[in-house]
Backbone:
């Protein structure tokens, strides 16, 4: 009897060894992955390419979305990320590429599901890339971006990027006139943008690309709070504090050329008069006298197509119940264009996808902080209160029309001296509150994240970061409750 028992145990051990898998300690044996994540990605890609269509997209994509979300980061690690991480990243990108190429055949509801799938895939790509490349995780504040190598263009200085179909692999990636570049900044303001809308996203800014037809010089047309719309060199744009960059290329090159030329000329003509297109703090897409970062490309394509090419195809949604807080941010409940919406616009091709793995923990932590804060407001009836920082910001900002005093107050407060005077006081006050909240929670969650890494050898998942922050809230820290607490 013992002999047969030993044989049975031996057979089980051999079976586990041959499939190179383990049973996760926190899951039932029958629920473990039947195939490696690497194979799952490739099999899914082939299935999408061969079988996805308008008739079955809802069921197929919903099932895929569910499967991906059930695949924990712990399970992926059992496939040996240290060895296969690069292949995981390549196959995950290829799956996103396959989904993107099917967008033109899908309806609005299915495109929304694709957006969720992209978010889930990117989350797993981030954690795989961090553990595969083992880049030390640093705060963006510690990086001297102006003195750094140029992302994308200085290929050897950074981790590899991925190119879309029919994009030639060259020493220096070539931008085209009318390209749209969506990026993820590494600040609390960036995390506000990426976490506020539904579904959540991993992008926060839109850059419109202009390439001079004669000189081939590449510039960007961008709009910023306190600055309005301005021209920047592509070097400046690439050296910005970006955790990720996605370059999208319009399929209609002729329209893209006209749109970029129109917006470039509009900015140049105003610059000759020492004027700029102001930033649109109301985010009113029906009035192009003022433009937010999303509205720059939106207006260019709208005008040059005479209203026939409206971006994006599918907008995100603002659902936060605290309308008073939303008004301070200049947004309203309902559909709203955010940068990530461009990733699922079928009229654009993916040209390039790049990630800076050094700063992903910094970006993830800030996203978790703002995401939890919005959840507390929406589900726990929390409200942001007037506090010392927000009141001080109001007082300081109200001196902006007094030249001598403003110069001094700008130095004391850290508000840029050249901020345009049209920035609403409520915007300055809200930014101050968000920064105060973020600073309190960032120190705490960073310590817990690093402690988790030291003890378990892996970084926290997004869910673990958010759970940690919620536990912090429930401990009723005095500094936090001075700024945000139950209504």
Residues:
């Amino acid at each position: 009897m013992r002999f047969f028992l030993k044989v049975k145990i031996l057979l089980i051990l051999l079976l586990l060894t041959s499939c190179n898998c383990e049973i996760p300690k926190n899951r039932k044996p029958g629920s473990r992955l039947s195939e490696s994540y690497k194979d799952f990605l490739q099999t899914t890609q082939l299935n999408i390419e061969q079988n996805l269509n308008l008739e079955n997209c809802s069921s197929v994509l919903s099932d895929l979305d569910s499967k991906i979300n059930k695949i924990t980061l712990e399970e992926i690690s059992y496939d040996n990320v240290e060895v296969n991480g690069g292949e995981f990243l390549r196959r995950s990108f290829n799956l996103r590429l396959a989904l993107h190429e099917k967008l033109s055949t899908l309806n609005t509801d299915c495109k929304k599901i694709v957006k969720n799938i992209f978010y889930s895939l990117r989350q797993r790509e981030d954690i795989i890339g961090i553990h595969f490349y083992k880049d030390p995780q640093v705060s963006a504040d510690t990086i001297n971006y102006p003195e750094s190598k140029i992302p994308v263009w200085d290929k050897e200085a950074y981790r590899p990027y991925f190119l879309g179909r029919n994009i030639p692999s060259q020493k220096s990636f070539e931008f085209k006139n009318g390209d749209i570049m969506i990026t993820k900044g590494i600040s609390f303001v960036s995390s506000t943008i990426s976490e506020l809308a539904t579904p959540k996203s991993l992008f926060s800014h839109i850059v419109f690309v202009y390439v001079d037809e004669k000189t081939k010089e590449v510039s960007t047309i961008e709009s910023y709070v306190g600055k309005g719309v301005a021209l920047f060199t592509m070097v400046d744009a690439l050296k910005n504090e970006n955790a990720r960059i996605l370059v999208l290329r319009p399929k209609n090159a002729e329209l893209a050329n006209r749109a970029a030329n129109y917006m470039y000329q509009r900015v140049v003509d105003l610059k000759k008069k020492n004027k700029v297109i102001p930033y649109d703090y109301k985010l009113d897409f029906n009035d192009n006298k003022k433009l937010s970062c999303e509205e720059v490309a939106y207006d260019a394509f709208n005008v040059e197509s005479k209203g026939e090419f409206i971006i994006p195809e599918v907008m995100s949604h603002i659902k936060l119940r605290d309308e008073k807080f939303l008004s301070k941010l200049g947004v309203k409940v309902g559909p709203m264009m955010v940068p990530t919406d461009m990733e699922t616009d079928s009229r654009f091709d993916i040209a390039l996808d790049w990630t800076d793995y050094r700063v992903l923990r910094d970006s993830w932590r800030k996203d978790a902080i703002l995401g939890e804060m919005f959840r507390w407001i929406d589900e726990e009836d929390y409200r942001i209160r007037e506090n010392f920082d927000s009141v001080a910001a109001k007082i300081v900002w109200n001196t902006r029309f007094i030249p001598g005093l403003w110069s001094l107050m700008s130095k004391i407060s850290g508000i840029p001296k050249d901020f345009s005077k049209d920035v609403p006081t409520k915007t300055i006050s809200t930014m101050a509150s968000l920064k105060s909240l973020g600073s309190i929670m960032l120190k705490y969650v960073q310590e817990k994240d690093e402690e988790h890494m030291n003890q378990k050898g892996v970084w926290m998942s997004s869910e673990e970061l958010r759970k940690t922050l919620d536990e912090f809230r429930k401990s009723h820290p005095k500094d936090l409750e001075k700024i945000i607490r139950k209504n």
